[in-house]
């Protein structure tokens, strides 16, 4: 059986956008709309359910505003998207409580039968997209981010999460070999802290030395199948997540079952999932709901063939 999930930040509805224009923080409104998206994921029969992260202005913010030695600074465009993020500014030794990320989620909206998934930035992406005024060496920043994210992973594990997706948008833009050893150490630390399933999801651009990914201590690898990425020829016992739901386009992908069948015909991972290629926050709310329904129909076709 092929599984399914949607990771990352979901779009806000027009109603919620209008509310947040008038005031910067509205917990009841975020919770009300989050509940709708929790239910939408269940209706889509997803393998894992994730908090839609509607209050996350970017994937770093809940950590940067609640940690020591780091704070959100100036605004920068997030790659070539129409979204922006506050650059994490490193001013001292980074430290945070273990439950910072877990506390930013709507834990009360999960049901006992839900398999809980969370998503965080990977340590290399966090390091590269930060402004360092303290450590003076990118390898030290990667190590510090590994420790910071390990604490968050431990907190999520204690909160009952079963799967953690580390988002890796930078991998296709850098020399992965240059940072590989320090990255592997940081990810290993996160894996030990979380204990359960950890998946790296690479998106926006294909990785040049893609076979290196097999050497990282994770349970699964996810690929942006819309923007030219290809899974490894061999997965070395790693699960495979296929980013075939296009989070950067309103076009509905009707060919997902055929693409999954073709890919899995040449690769035989221990487990496969269909997921989004990038966060759904880039499409309007109503299309995010349509994408969830599209995924439900696609998975029924895939698993009933």
What report would you give on this structure?
By secondary structure, the chain is α/β, with parallel strands linked by helices. It has a single domain (3-304), classed as TIM Barrel (Alpha-Beta Barrel). Helix content is 36%, strand content 21%. It contains nine helices and eleven strands. Strands 1-11-10-9-8-7-5-2 form an eight-stranded parallel sheet. Strands 3-4-6 form a three-stranded mixed sheet. A hairpin with a 6-residue loop joins strand 3 (68-77) and strand 4 (84-95). The longest helix has 21 residues, at 138-158. The chain is globular. The termini are close together. The model has no long low-confidence stretch (mean pLDDT 94).
- Biggest sheet: strand arrangement: 1-11-10-9-8-7-5-2
Helix share, percent: 25-40%
The CATH topology corresponds to TIM Barrel
Strand count: 11
* SSE pattern: EHHEHEEHEHEHEHEEEHEH
Average pLDDT metric: 94
Gap between N and C termini, in Å? 10 Å
Silhouette: globular
Beta-strand proportion = 15-25%
Largest sheet: 8 strands, parallel
**Name given to the CATH architecture:** Alpha-Beta Barrel
Our Rg estimate from Cα atoms comes to 18 Å
CATH class descriptor name: Alpha Beta
Question: How many independent structural domains?
Answer: 1
Low-confidence stretches: none
What structural class do helix, strand and pairing data support?
alpha/beta
Helical stretch count?
9
